[in-house]
Records
---
Amino acid sequence: MRVALTGATGFLGLRLLHELLRRHPSVTVLARGEPDRVRERIIRGLGRFAPGLTGLADRVQVVSARITEPGLALPKSDYQELADSLDAIWHCAGNTTLDGDLATLREVNVEGTRYVLDLAGAGRRTPVVFHVSTAFVAGARRTGVVYEDELTDAYGFEGTYEQSKFEAEQLVHAWARATGRPVVIFRPSVLTTGLPPHPDLPEHPLLNITRNLSGIARSQLGPGRTPDVLLPRTHRFRILGRPDGQLNLMPVESAAAVMARLADLPPPDGVETYHVVHGQETPVVVFGRLLEQLSGVRIAVVPELPDPSPYESVLSLVRGVFCYLRHHRRYDDSRVRARLGPAGVPEHISLEYLLSGLPPRTEAAPVDLEPHR
C-alpha cells in the first residue's frame, strides 16, 4: 500500500507522518525543496519524539512537488507514475496565517487542495483522500453546538484563514460528488503540545500569537523599548472577550493518533467528517494566562471596552486572534466517539501543560477577569 502525505514538515504533519510510519513500510512525502534536505529535516524532527522508528532514510520517500501548481510541477511521466501508484493521499499542507491575505491563503488552501484532488483522480487506482481541515470552518458562530455534518457560511468568518478552509471543504465535497470517490475530512481544533521546543521541531503555532502581542506593543513604544514600559506591573490592558468563554485545545500528538486510527477503518461511501477535538473545553482564562506569561503584557478579558487606550485600540483591530476569546461554543464529536470510544479522548489541558511546550518567560502576572476600572 503506497501512502502519500503533504505538509509532512509542519506541526501536525510531522506527527501524522510518525503515525503513518508506524503502520506502513514507507510513506511518500510531497514537499517543496531538494528531497535529501527535506528527508534530513524530517528525520531530525522525528528523532526528537519518535526515536524508536528505524530505517527512515529508506522509508521516507520524498518527491519534490509544488501543490500550488497544476500537476504539482512534476514531469508528466513522473506525475502519472505517482498517481497510478497511490492507495491513500493525506493532504495536510496549508497556509495557517489566521488573517492573511485571502488570495494568498486561497493559493495554498483552496487551489492546493484542488491539485491534490486532481492527483487522486488521475491514476488507475481509487485512493482514499484524507483531507485535514479545521474545526474553525464553523466561522463566526460563537455559541451553541457545531456538528460534524455542518458546513455553512451563514455566520460569516472570524478571519480569512477560516474562509479559505471552508472553501476548500466545499471543493472536496463537490469533487467527491462528481467522482464518487471516498474522502475523509478531519477537523482538528487548536493544536498544542507539551513537548519542549527544539530547533529540529516545527514551530508551535501559538508562538505567532505571542509575537503579534509583543510586536504590537513594541510598535507603540518605539525601538529598543519593551512592553513593560508601556504596561507596568500595576496596569493591565483589556481585550474584548467573554470572561466565561471557552476554546477547544487539543494535543497535536493525540490529534494525529486519532486521525490515524480513524484512517484504519474501512473507507466511507462518499464524504465522512470527523471533529478531532478535546472532550473538555479550555476556559478563556487559561488561554489569557498563557498569552500573558509568554508575551510579557498583562491581560484583562472584559465583556465591554469603554474608553480604550491607544494600545487597546490597536489590539482591537487585530483580527484572527482575539476574536476567539468571545467564543463559547463546543464541537460535537459523536462520530469519533462512536468509532473509537473514550480511548480517543486525551486528558485535561492545563496551563502547566501548555507552558511546557513553549519557550519560558519569567515574571509573569496573573490574568485579571474583572473589568478594568
---
Amino acid sequence: MARIKFILQGKSSNSQIYLRLSLSKYVSFKRKTGYSIDYKDWSKSTGFPKSNDPFNKNLKVDLKNLEVFVEKELNVSNTNGMDVTSLWLKDSIANFLGKSEAKELDYLVDYTKQYIERLRNKSNNNGQKGVSEATIKKRTTILNKIVKFQNHTKRKFKVKDVDLKFREEFIEFLDSEEKLSEGTIGKYLKEVKTICFDAQKNNIDVSSQLIHFKGFNVDSIHVTLSFDEIKEIQKTKFEDKYLELAKKWLIIGCYTGQRVSDLMRMNKSMIEKHREYEFIVLTQKKTKKIVQIPIHNEVKSILDSLDGNFPDVFSENESSNSALFNKYLKLVCKDAKLTYLAEGKLRNEETERLEIGKFPKYKLVSSHICRRSFATNFYAQRRYPTPLLMNITAHSTEKMFLKYIGKKPIDYGLQLAKIWAEDI
C-alpha cells in the first residue's frame, strides 16, 4: 500500500518541506512541496508542523490537503493504468498548487490527458455522448507509452516537439524497449498525430513537420476456422467440463459473429421471438449498436441441450473469463487434431516478439477467431449478401468489413462471375 510522508531537508529557519511517496519497500519518490518552515517548528513524531501559531496551523492544513490530493491522483492513475513516476509526483504537486507548469497544454502529456478527458463528452457516431471504456483504455495506453518515453529520454516534450526526429526515436523506443509489433507501433504513431492535430485545432503550437509525421499499416494474417474444422471440433468429446464449455462457446461464437465481450454475456433473457423465428438481441459493448442475430441450428442444438440456456462462463470477472477462454480454446483445437501447420503470428518467448511463420494451427487460435470465422465463412455466398452479415457483425462500411476478413474489392467481381457461372 502506498504511503505519503512529509520530511524536512536541512536544519535552517527556512527548511524545504519534501513529500515522499513510497509505492513499495523498494520504490519511492521525493519532491519539493513548495512549502518551507523553521525546522524548530517541525514535529518529527507527527511529520507535520507544530500547532504553535496560526501560520503553522494553516501550513499543517495545507499539507494535509496536499496529502489527500496526491492520494486521489494516485487512485485515478492506478485505475487508468498510468505509470507513477517522480515526474508524475512533481506534476501532481504542481497541479495542487495551481502552478501553470503542470497545466500548460502545450506539453504533450498534459494535452493528451485533457484530450482523453474530453473524449468522455464527445459525440459518437450514434449521436450519443462519450466513447466506450475500451476506447478510453486504448488512449490511456498511448499516454502511458508517452510518459515512459519521457522517462526513458529524461525529457519533457511539448506538442511542438512531435516532429520527424521524435518519430524515429519513439519508434526505436517502442521497438527495442517495449517490444511492440510493427503493427502496434504504426497505430501508436497515428494516435500521436491525431492528438497533435487536435491540439493544433485548439491553437496549440505544433511542428511544421507534423504533416509528414505518419504511422503505417502492416498486413494482417487472418486465422479462421472453416466449416469443416468447426465440424471436427463439434465431433470431439471432452471429459474435462471446461473444455466442453469452451467447445460450446466456440461453436456459438462461430455462428453468431460477436466479440468475446458480447459473446459471453449472452443469456436466455436476450432471446426474442419475432413471428416464427428466434433471435439473440443485444447491444454491443464496443459500438453500442443493437444487433439482432438469428439463432442458427447449430446454436439452437446447444441451447436445447441446456434447457434453453447458454453455457456457463469460466469466471465472473470479464478479463479472467476471456483469458481462460483463450487458454481452453487452444486445448480444444489441439484435441480436435488441428495440429497441422498454418501461417500466422506467434510470440517468441525468448525475444518477446511476435514472429510470422508456420505454426501448429491450434497455437494460433484465440477468442477473436469466432467473429472472424463467422464473417469469412458466410461472406460471398449467394445466400448471404454482405449487408446481412454486416448487420450482425456491426461493421459500419463494406470497406471495413472486407478489410476485416482480408478481402479486396476485386473479390466482388469474382463473386459475380461465380453467380453468373451457376446461372448458365
